[in-house]
């Protein structure tokens, strides 16, 4: 994938903000607890999107700044979390002062960043002893309908779906990882919207996107685990990485 294509993909969320807010998952409490140090007061939620992870930080009593470059995504966040300090900015240039937060969280977004520049920026804004935490909610493909759904989502996708540990540089101690399995109730009829919120589909030509979305509808209509059900368990595995600022 070229840098230009990656940038187009990263910017595509501007077109899918409402459906993102309606269909994407939040984060399990035990994963957020693992990421956020108990003593933390000030948090930066970086690439905060529509506020899915921001809401968990607010619920933990943290004083949160949410930085997000897309006006549409940030607009959804402000609508659900009007008390949060939401700012435009990027991972490479947050606009926050030096040593001003105890934790930086990045949900579902580290792969869009210039990794070295983002790691340096996170090191700059974290206080010594603060934590950089990177989280990804991945579909649990051990479940067979989810594996079939994933095949459709990644058809023709040049972006590697693997989400390895972030490379954060010498300003941080060792990167530690943990995974958390969980599920959330989901209407099979919303599978189409969830698929449509993904950057790969947002950037496909309309005819190709519609063909994949029609197959997603077909999966929801015929798979025995989905057919005729109002609500099913949507299984996720949340992968978390954390590193402490030296
Ligand atoms: C998949 S969404 C994740 C949103 C939210 N963190 C969540 O967990 O739902 C990815 C977000 O990264 C943002 N983004 C893309 N490139 C970025 C960059 N270089 N710096 C900061 N945010 C970026 C997009 O605008 C989008 O809102």
UniProtKB/TrEMBL annotation:
Keyword Methyltransferase assigned: yes
Any Pfam family matching the protein: Methyltransf_11
InterPro entries linked: Diverse_substrate_MTase (IPR051052), Methyltransf_11 (IPR013216), SAM-dependent_MTases_sf (IPR029063)
Keywords: Methyltransferase, Transferase
CDD domains: AdoMet_MTases
GO terms classed as biological process: methylation
GO terms, molecular function: methyltransferase activity
Domain Methyltransferase type: 44-133
Family membership: Belongs to the methyltransferase superfamily.
Protein name: Class I SAM-dependent methyltransferase
Lineage, highest ranks first: Bacteria, Bacillati, Actinomycetota, Actinomycetes, Micrococcales
């Amino acid at each position: 994938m070229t840098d230009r294509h990656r940038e187009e993909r990263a910017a595509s969320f501007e077109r899918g903000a409402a459906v993102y807010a309606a269909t994407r998952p939040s984060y399990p409490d035990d994963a957020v607890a693992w990421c956020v140090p108990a003593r933390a007061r000030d948090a930066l939620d970086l690439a905060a999107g529509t506020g899915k992870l921001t809401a968990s930080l607010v619920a933990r009593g943290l004083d949160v700044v949410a930085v997000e470059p897309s006006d549409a995504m940030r607009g959804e966040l402000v609508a659900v979390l009007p008390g949060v300090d939401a700012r435009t900015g990027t991972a490479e240039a947050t606009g926050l002062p030096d040593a001003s937060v105890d934790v930086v969280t990045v949900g579902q977004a580290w792969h869009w960043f210039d990794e070295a520049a983002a790691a340096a920026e996170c090191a700059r804004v974290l206080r010594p002893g603060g934590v950089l935490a990177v989280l990804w909610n991945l579909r649990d493909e051990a479940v067979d309908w989810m594996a079939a759904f994933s095949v459709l989502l990644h058809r023709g996708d040049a972006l590697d779906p693997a989400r390895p540990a972030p490379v954060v540089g010498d300003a941080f101690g060792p990167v530690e990882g943990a995974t958390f399995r969980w599920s959330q109730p989901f209407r099979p009829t919303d599978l189409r919207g969830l698929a449509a919120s993904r950057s790969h589909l947002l950037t496909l030509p309309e005819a190709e996107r519609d063909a994949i979305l029609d197959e997603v509808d077909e999966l929801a209509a015929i798979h025995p685990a989905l057919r005729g059900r109002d609500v099913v368990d949507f299984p996720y595995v949340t992968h978390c990485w954390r590193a402490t600022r030296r």
